[in-house]
Amino acid sequence: MAAIVASMPAEIVIRGVRPDENSSVHQLVQAIADETFAYLFATLPVPIGEANWLSAWLAISGEEIVGVTMTRDEWVSDLWVRADSRRTGIGAKLLAHAEGEIRSRGHDVIRLRVVKSNTRAVHFYQSRGWRVNREFLHEKFGHVMLEMIKFNETGPIWQSDDR
User: Fold this and answer.
1) How many CA atoms lie within 13 A of 129 on its CB side?
2) Pairing assessment for the beta strands 131-137 and 144-151 based on DSSP bridges
3) Confidence (pLDDT) at 154
């Protein structure tokens, strides 16, 4: 009888960006953005706006960067996962890390923006407790965006008048 051996994915480690990795992170995000959003833009590269990734968090599998997230204030400003690493829990692990970082700053509401036509990402966020707060046109490019929000599990705390 033949044994079936499933390959185990490498452990995913979330860690900060080292100064010598900024260029590699930027190139990875650019490649993911080009692959994901080429249909929205007439020419490549897709504008990503961010060049400094030193405050980001990386998902590392083995020795490879497979995902990145970054936060600002109450915002998850970036969440990117390589196509070959999606649906493996990496995005969920990065998102949980970003949410925890924002909660640690004392914010009761966490926010993010996502391209509305990126339905896979919208469903990903909704399945993790996020809800659409508003729909709007991107201020520079004009495509339809969603602002999504998630309430901090520990707040806001409402006092009831019922006694």
Assistant:
1) 11
2) antiparallel
3) 58
User: Which residues is 69 bridged to in the sheet?
Assistant: 57, 79
Q: How many domains does the chain have?
A: 1
26: left (phi over 0), alpha (psi -120 to 50) or beta: alpha
Cα–Cα distance measured from residue 80 to residue 69, given in angstroms and rounded to the nearest whole number: 6
Q: How far is CA 122 from CA 18, 52, 131, in A?
A: 30, 26, 9
Q: What is the pLDDT of residue 21?
A: 96
Calculate ∠ Cα 51-57-61, nearest 5°: 115
Rounded Cα gap, residues 143 and 132, in angstroms = 16
- Can you read off the two tokens belonging to residue 61? 């599998």
Residues of the chain with pLDDT under 50: 1-8, 156-163
Q: What local confidence, expressed as pLDDT, does residue 102 receive?
A: 97
Tokens of 54: 């030193």
Q: What is the pLDDT of residue 83?
A: 95
User: What's the CATH code of the domain at 110?
Assistant: 3.40.630.30
Global pTM? 0.86
Going by the DSSP 8-state scheme, the letter that residue 10 receives in this structure is P
pLDDT at 7: 43
162 within domain boundaries: no
Any domain includes 158: no
State residue 49's pLDDT score. Answer: 80
